[in-house]
Design a protein that fits this description.
Layout (H helix, E strand, L loop, with lengths): L3 E4 L5 E4 L19 E2 L27 H5 L21 H6 L8 H32 L7 H43 L8 H9 L7 H10 L5 H27 L5 H32 L34 E4 H4 L12 E6 L1
Antiparallel strand pairs: 1-2, 1-3, 2-5, 4-5
Amino acid sequence: MSTVVQPCARCGTRWAVQGPPMHWCPRCRGVLLSPGPIDAPPERRNYRWVARRPGQLSRPGRAGDSARGDTATPHYTEIPRWGLADRPASESDQESGRPRPLSTLTRWVHAALFATAVLFAVAAAAELGRYLILLRNRTRLIEPPLLWFSDALVNTAALFALIMALVSAVAALGWLIEVRRAAFAAAGSSDPRSPRMLALGCLIPVVNLIWPGVFLTEVVSGGADPRPRNAIRLWWAVWVFGGLLAVATLFWRTADSLQAQADGVLFTAFADAVAAAVAVLTLWVMRTIEGRDLDGRRRLARRWVIAVDPATPLIEPVHPGPAATVNTAAAEPADSGVSADRAPQEVVAK
């Protein structure tokens, strides 16, 4: 029997070598390791991993191999500190880099904007109800109490929506002044625009279609987070569209024909719906600049990591198995080119 064997990495069977080494186990088709003496000590079986520094790769037969083999394996004396450091930002760091208002005015502006959105939504629903009444009035007479209720709802909702919009505008102006003061103070400077200039740019009609977007952009111009800038751009576009729509609604009210007046009711409902959307977007922009979501919850930083599947070994580890005698001649095909002198071979369990 040959004293040189090839262990199988899957089933653990050791096959005697009687010629050229084989690559696959005839029993389980696992990978056969390199040939080695059957009675070799553990440190001389199959592969032995040796770590060397770059440029000191030695080859068998060269002088000094025995001296290098006696040296210890290179290793780190401590955990390596090199590499990329991905330190999560603490809550204090996030708060220090985020502009925050300094008074309780923000609570009122948020509530005022929410009430404004609700009132404009009610006004839009009232205008739709009036339009449906006009459609029904084409074929039937409408009861006077229903007409009185519709007119009262439309006028009351529109009046309170306009009043609340004015209150929201004043509160938003105070919020803008405070948030700009906090942002420029965090950058080590003062606000270059006076409160009077901010008030004139935000409250004068037609002018307030341009300057509020400029004032808000200056607040987030030095930040690394692109979400506030994108939110301001979206709000700015909807804000200008809503302003132009309000002007068109006023001109539509001056129409004389009945059909134009009926279409004006439907157009007014659309304008009220856009005004409600503008109020919601304004609240969203404020929350985004403050580092919160639309519901007022603090937005936490997200860290993206690589998700990989659990590591599965391609080759199963060697497990001890019982001794067996395998006829390789029967396991391999007749036309595989294997010589007949390798037919009956004794295998010994590892």
